[in-house]
Write a structure and sequence with these properties.
Elements: E1 5-6, E2 11-13, E3 16-18, E4 23-24, E5 28-29, E6 34-36, E7 39-42, E8 46-49, H1 57-68, E9 75-77, H2 83-86, H3 89-95, E10 100-103, H4 105-113, E11 123-125, E12 131-133, E13 138-143, E14 153-157, E15 162-164, H5 186-189, H6 191-201, H7 206-218, E16 225-227, E17 234-235, H8 238-252, E18 257-264, H9 270-284, E19 290-294, H10 300-309, E20 310-320, E21 323-324, H11 326-337, E22 341-351, H12 357-368, E23 370-382, H13 390-403, H14 411-419
Parallel strand pairs: 8-9, 9-10, 10-11, 15-16, 18-19, 18-20, 20-22, 22-23
Antiparallel strand pairs: 1-2, 2-7, 3-6, 4-5, 7-8, 12-13, 13-14, 14-15, 16-17, 20-21
Helix pairs in contact: 6-10, 7-8, 9-13, 10-11
The structure holds MU-OXO-diiron.
Length: about 425
Amino acid sequence: MYCVRNVTDDIYWIGANDHRTHLFENIHPIPQGVSYNCYVLLDEKTAMFDTIEWGQGRQMMSNLEHVLDGRDLDYLVVNHLEPDHAASTGLILSRYPNVKVISSEKCFMLMHQFGFDVDAHEQIQVKEGDTFSFGKHTVTFVEAPMVHWPEVMVTFDLTEGVLFSADAFGGFIANDGKLWSTDVDWKANNLDEIRRYHCNIVGKYGPHVQLLLGKAATILDKIKIVCPLHGLIYHADDDLMTYIDKLNHWSSYTPEEKGVLIAYASMYGNTESAAQALASAICEKGFTNVKVCDISETHVSYLIADVFKYSHLVLASPTYNLNIYPVMENFLNEMRMLNMQNRHVAIIENGSWAITSGDLMQEFLEDEMKDMTVMNERISIASSLSGDKKRDVDDMAQAIIDSMEEVTCDPAKRFEKKQH
Ligand code: FEO
């Protein structure tokens, strides 16, 4: 059975929702699923914008055939070749032998690498600023390299102001019938999963996202609808401005909120106890935007999302084989790989002999990452937090609260600060 929704009179969403895949990219849990969005335009010519993940290909074909209603597919525009969108390209090429493929030079290269028989089809290679008309609708192409792969472009329909934005403006959570941001209370119910999607998938490429936002800003008054490849689609209203504001924060590594993520690893509960004591001390002083996570229990993608959200991070780790506890080391590595920067970090270390985790974490933060402020206050625990450490806990709590003054949650001010 087909399952489609109108975006405009001429443009249809023909994607699918996936609740069967448990790990997106075989890494990130998606307990609420994910949608793969693709779109079709009915004009004098017919055009499809991207395809879909392989497992949902049958649904996509059913949707497409319903919308085409007997017409041939004239063009396939490929904005992004990652297989969660392009794996079903082969289905389209074989079902529609006359279809012409429009894409970037790098994307055609990747099509060959992934084994698509694109040489049997006319290939129209486009670059930044090129335009193409399907009849009433004329589109222009905007290069968006590394948002999220190097071949990425976005396509802007000049006629109706529809931006096909590839991975940008995406999010986890299957749409399940809802399509527009206004169909749901997305700021309350979807934002955490949108953040987790963006920061883990595209977080590393902040400067590239900033470039794309800069390009979008020049045509912002012309953008009426944003159609990403995952998640909800947005009218040019407050919702879109909210998403742009979030993107601006994430891609500039500016915290969204003054707040504290206390991420602890604990073998027998003693480091956990210190993490909880610190959380209580901070809250007791009146600052309550504090989140505590056991990193052995929390998938690292959730931790990454919270690091992008909050201004402050407390890392609490036992010493393990004279090293950082492995799950903490993994968390640090993930932050480094995703280019995380511009955070205040406090350290709690634990060890029953030869405590090394604190020094090693500090070394990692200072040598392997950029612009991380490691606070002077450190809590060092010999096996368990003794009563005489209460002063250290209070000092760290107070130092964290005091340092909130040094933090800006305004991306523009962050860049001003950097320029001076
Ligand atoms: Fe949703 Fe980069 O693919």
